[in-house]
Amino acid sequence: MNNSKPFPIPLWIILLIGIIAISFSSIFIRWSDAPVSVMAMYRLYFTNLFMIPFVMKYWSEIKTLSKSDWFYLSLSGLLLGLHFLLWMGSLRFTSVANSTAIVALEPIFVLIGSFLFFKIRTNILSVVGMFIAVLGAALIGWGDFGVSSEAFFGDILALLGAIAVALHMLIGKLLLRKMSNYVYSFFVFLTAAFSLHIYNLILGYSFFNYASIDWGIFIILAIVPTVFGHLLFNWLLKYMNATTVSMSILGEPLGAALLAYFLLNEHITIQQAIAGVILLFGVWLFIKFDEKDRSKI
């Protein structure tokens, strides 16, 4: 733990709340017929709206941001917007279980980017985990291609979404060395929402002509998986080590698959289940030994 003060609620309960919250994301998306880019836009705009009352506390920090900081904040936001567009789009074509499992490859793409851009190396067991995870993803794609080319296309979108969010995370690692998580999150979310706003304008999507259930889903996407999911994980980094919080990424595919089974009547084949287990085991192996290796630096 990074903070010696005892916390009134067991931290594992808060972590579990975060995992359940992000697991609901794909379910909410499936419950709306609105374009995914519109859902993503309002999800981020509403999240920013909830954050506004607190942003003034960081005004002195915001005034010190350089042109370079604003450039990389914008780039990180564009990549986050692209991630939501691709990943949420994948749920229109492939299963919840497959989409969330493939997006769990994110830390492996972060490793590849860290090596290519920052020359950061890792140990052999992490590399083994990476190859196992990639094998699992390939098996998922191969199985879906056998089911339908549409499902395979959804897997590709999820894979591209994982790459986009990994690049977003790499930029975030640099920016968070010089600014608070709140400032970073607020302006990245705002940039991502605005980029999706422009995308929706270009495609001519309606901004207001949606049923009340859709508006409810826009708001709940901001509250549940974003505030009680991603922002909660960022807050937990103050009290828990990064390895434990990083492992939470493995809970989403399992939680989302179970929720999809009960709420969306989605079923998975034996091959998909085996491939998903292989992928998640590879990601677990990678995170476990990559974090252990970095703790020695």
TrEMBL record:
InterPro entries: AA-Vitamin_Transporters, EamA_dom, EmrE-like
Keywords carried by this UniProt record: Cell membrane, Membrane, Transmembrane, Transmembrane helix
Keyword Mitochondrion: no
Subcellular location per the Swiss-Prot or TrEMBL entry: Cell membrane
Topology in membrane: Multi-pass membrane protein
Taxonomic superkingdom: Bacteria
TM regions (residue ranges): 7-29, 41-59, 71-90, 96-117, 124-145, 151-171, 183-203, 215-237, 244-264, 270-287
Limits of the EamA domain: 13-141, 153-286
Pfam family for this entry, one: EamA
GO cellular component annotations of the record: plasma membrane
Family of the protein in this entry: Belongs to the EamA transporter family.
Protein name: DMT family transporter
